[in-house]
Specification:
Order of helices and strands: EHEHHEEEEHEEEEH
Radius of gyration: 17 Å
CATH superfamily: Chloramphenicol acetyltransferase-like domain
Strand content: 25-35%
Largest sheet: 7 strands, mixed
Number of helices: 5
Helix content: 25-40%
Number of strands: 10
Length: 207
């Protein structure tokens, strides 16, 4: 982790402006073509969630703005890697928050998911032992289709992005899923969200 020099940052004025907002987050929802990713998951016997989450995290880590976090109200730090804090459901339909360490290697990442899933299923803890801001908050709603999504926020400054995935739907020969992403406008703009969605789509189509 290193500090970003806010004084020489070309977005300094944007940061200072949006950082005064009570709610500086904006959200974008985008449809993703998940046909190949779903077929790969089915053919390989892997969880579809694990496959698309790994593609998502690769894209997240490749866009530097998604690794920015606000510290001490006016400072910005750049994390080396961003991990996934996803909600995982238990058999009784409650959920726990996970902290899934990111790894560019899919098999290692999948094992990290399984380890967190086992921990959550075998406990009633809401929060993971590791709970830091070098992550994105992830929710999957495979029961519902949506074109927009509102995430809950504390009444204090936050800078961790939120991502939600919708139910997968079939349109003729294509399978689609909406991804909704909420980000702090003090740290990034629509351009950076566009970089993420483009990279995410590219990875989904590479399977």
């Amino acid at each position: 982790m290193k500090k970003l020099n806010v004084h020489t940052w070309n977005r300094r004025k944007h940061f200072e402006f949006f950082n005064t907002f009570q709610d500086p987050f904006f959200a974008v929802a985008a449809p993703m073509n998940v046909t190949k990713a779903h077929e790969f998951a089915k053919a390989s016997g892997n969880s579809f969630f694990a496959v698309y989450l790994h593609d998502c995290m690769k894209a997240i880590n490749e866009v530097e703005a998604f690794r920015y976090r606000i510290e001490n109200d006016t400072e910005v730090v750049i994390h080396e890697a961003i991990h996934a804090s996803a909600t995982i459901m238990r058999p009784d339909k409650t959920f726990g928050f996970s902290f899934i360490d990111y790894d560019v290697n899919f098999e290692k990442f999948r094992k990290n998911i399984e380890a967190e899933k086992e921990r959550i299923i075998n406990s009633d803890d809401l929060f993971p032992p590791k709970n830091s801001e070098d992550c994105i908050y992830v929710s999957a709603l495979p029961w519902a289709s949506f074109t927009g999504h509102k995430e809950p926020f504390h009444g204090r400054k936050e800078s961790v992005p939120r991502i939600a995935f919708s139910k997968m739907e079939v349109e003729k020969t294509k399978k689609k899923m909406t991804v909704s992403i909420s980000v702090n406008h003090a740290l990034m703009d629509g351009y950076h969200v566009g970089q993420f969605t483009e990279k995410f789509q590219e990875y989904l189509l590479k399977h």
